[in-house]
Amino acid sequence: MDKGFGDPGGGAEVKAVGLVKNYGDNAVLKGLGFELKAGEFMAVVGRSGCGKTTLLRLLAGLEAPDQGRVLVNGEPRTDLNDDTRIMFQEDRLLPWKSILGNVGLGLGGDYQSVAMKALEDVGLGLRKGDWPRTLSGGQRQRVALARALAHSPKLLLLDEPMGALDALTRIEMQSLVERLWRDWGFTALLVTHDVAEAITLADRVILLENGRVTQDLRIDLPRPRQRDIAFAKLESEVLNWILSLYAGFI
Amino acid sequence: MPWLLPILLILYWQIAANMGWINPRILPSPLNVFKAFVRLLLNGELLENIKVSCGRAGLGFLIGGSIGLTLGLITATWRFLETLLDTTLQMVRTIPNLALLPLVIIWFGIGEKAKIFLIVCGVTFPIYLNTFHGIRSVDLNLISMARVYGLDRLALWRHVILPGALPSILVGVRFSLGVMWMTLIIAETIAASSGLGYMATNAREMMQTDVMVLTILMYALLGKLADVVARALEKRFLAWCPVNAA
User: Is B46 on the interface with A (CB under 8 A)?
Assistant: First the structure.
């Protein structure tokens, strides 16, 4: 497989079929399925503990489903794969490696030029020699994004990577993710609690409920998205889904 | 400025000795200690003994350090070996290594082996404990991240586990350097035919208090030197830690 930088090679097609995952007696996923077109950006929303993170772990190949399967470009996913990378909620940078060393993690060979280009893509080229601890939270997440991009992933899984950022930094980060997604053409799956973020970024928003997909909404707003009336309408629709889930508990 | 107090103290000490306030048989004047230093330096005795002592310390540290590091690495990696070894090691480590001294003299006499064996016993456990603890406390999130980013087992060790454990390992190194000197001093004082401790014991029999004080100063100097080396290691390898930031 060609992993040359600057040759993103488009996105992967992802298909999840009847995914079931239990942890002991606790059924987290109960027959979850969806299809993602190559290069599509999908957001997953749902209550805490609805299985969003478990879904990401299955898609990444960190764990295997008890039933059902994940197909990436038609190939069943059984293990970790070089075409998929995760951006975590925490930056998970190695404190003992320079910024450039972090971005180049796992690249092998002559990683420097590849890592440097990814770092410049997130606007942090000048900080390449610094230690991670000297960066702000937002900058650290940008480095984590560069680290993911340096591998030219065909599928990028985003596990609430902007959840811990302040409001302004989060907006900056969202437009960065959107720009890089358009430049690179990878397929993206974003898990988020922030409905506005889901509608800002995604082509599609799905709702996870009781281990299944219960809503699937296409967002046809032009990009980059303005927070106008159409946006607000979609936002309240998605919020209503989520609030109706809570209705039974209040 | 930090040297002001020691200099004043030494000056006072010298004056007190000159005025006859201190019996020179109990505590020699600084000048006499210095004279002893020059005398032993010129006849080669001092350097020879320092060389012997440092050789023992270094060899013992190297052997003990390697054993501790290896044991720490394997018990932290394989759960089975932890179950097999850890309880035993935790029991053995609570025995002060110097408690073995009488036995060691019977086993090895007062030759080189005895001292090196005692140092090995003292150095092994601090390094073992800190290596084990360091590896076990590496952030699991970082390990799962590294797996997702395609690192194989070897690369995982090189880039994540060892660097993550290094701060703790170096704490073990520093601690065991202290144990190393203490063990050496006592072993050489009680049972030796060469080395700094032997020099001091010999001096006691001839009531040469100046040589005894000189030996103590030499120990202080060597201890400080070991500490400087340990600090340099930390500065070099832990530059990323906030505590080592310049």
Answer: no
Residues of chain A with CATH 3.40.50.300: 14-83+156-247
Query: What sign does the CA torsion over A95, A100, A103, A108 have?
Result: negative
Contact B163 A106 (CB under 8 A): no
Q: Given B142, B150, B242, which is nearest A94 (Cβ)?
A: B142
In this prediction the ipTM stands at 0.86
**pLDDT tens-digit series, residues B160-209:** 999 999 999 999 999 999 999 999 988 888 877 888 989 998 898 888 89
CATH 3.20.20.140 for the B44-238 domain, yes or no: no
Rounded to 10°, the helix A137-149/A167-184 angle is 10
| Residue B154 touches chain A, beta carbons under 8 Å | no
pLDDT at position B105? 87
Please name the residue of chain A whose CA is at the shortest distance from the CA of residue B242. A133
Please report, for chain B, the start and end positions of each structural domain, with discontinuous segments joined by +. 44-238
User: Quick one: angle between helices B196-205 and B209-237, nearest 10?
Assistant: 160
Pick from B141, B150, B240: which is nearest to A106 by CB?
B150
- pLDDT band with cut points at 50, 70 and 90 for residue A4: very low
Q: What CATH class has A14-83+156-247?
A: alpha beta
